[in-house]
C-alpha cells in the first residue's frame, strides 16, 4: 500500500451535550479529552476527543449551528449526520470495546466478517451509536 501524505485530521459531530459525549467516547473508545476543561470554563466553543496522535473528533454543540457561516448553507448541516464513522482497532482493542459496550446499555450490531475498508477486508466489524445517534463502526484487520 502506498504511504499517502494526506491524513484524516478531524471529524466534527453534532452533539447535544459535549461533556457527556466526551465521557462516552472516553469510556467506550478510550479516547482522551481535548480542551474539555476549557469548554466547561466557557473559553472555547467546543471540546474534542483524541482518537490517535493524528486524529481528533470535535464535539460540536447543536447550539452552534447558526454560527456555521463559513460557506453558504453550512448551518443547514446540523441534524444531518454522516452515515457512520469507522474506527480501525487492534484485535485486542476490538474485543475490549465490544465487551465494554455489551456490558453497558449501548446496543451493538451483529459481528460482520470481511467488510471492505481502507485496508481491504476486515476480519470483524460491528456498529454502535453514541448518545446523539451518530453511528460508529468498529473493525479490525488481520
Automatic annotation (TrEMBL):
InterPro entries (UniProt xref): Glyas_Bleomycin-R_OHBP_Dase, Glyas_Fos-R_dOase_dom, GlyoxalaseI/FosfomycinResist, VOC_core
VOC domain location: 7-141
Pfam families associated with the record: Glyoxalase
Protein name, per record: VOC family protein
Origin species: Streptomyces fuscus
Amino acid at each position: 500500500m502506498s504511504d499517502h501524505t494526506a491524513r484524516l485530521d478531524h471529524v466534527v459531530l453534532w452533539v447535544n451535550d459535549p461533556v457527556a459525549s466526551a465521557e462516552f467516547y472516553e469510556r467506550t473508545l478510550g479516547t482522551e479529552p481535548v480542551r474539555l476543561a476549557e469548554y466547561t470554563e466557557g473559553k472555547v466553543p467546543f471540546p474534542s476527543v483524541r482518537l490517535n496522535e493524528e486524529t481528533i473528533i470535535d464535539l460540536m454543540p447543536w447550539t452552534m449551528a447558526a454560527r456555521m457561516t463559513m460557506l453558504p448553507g453550512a448551518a443547514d448541516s446540523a441534524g444531518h449526520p454522516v452515515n457512520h464513522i469507522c474506527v480501525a482497532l487492534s484485535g485486542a482493542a476490538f474485543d475490549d470495546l465490544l465487551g465494554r459496550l455489551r456490558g453497558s446499555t449501548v446496543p451493538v450490531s451483529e459481528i460482520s466478517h470481511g467488510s471492505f475498508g481502507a485496508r481491504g477486508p476486515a476480519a470483524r466489524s460491528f456498529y454502535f451509536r453514541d448518545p446523539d445517534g451518530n453511528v460508529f463502526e468498529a473493525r479490525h484487520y488481520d
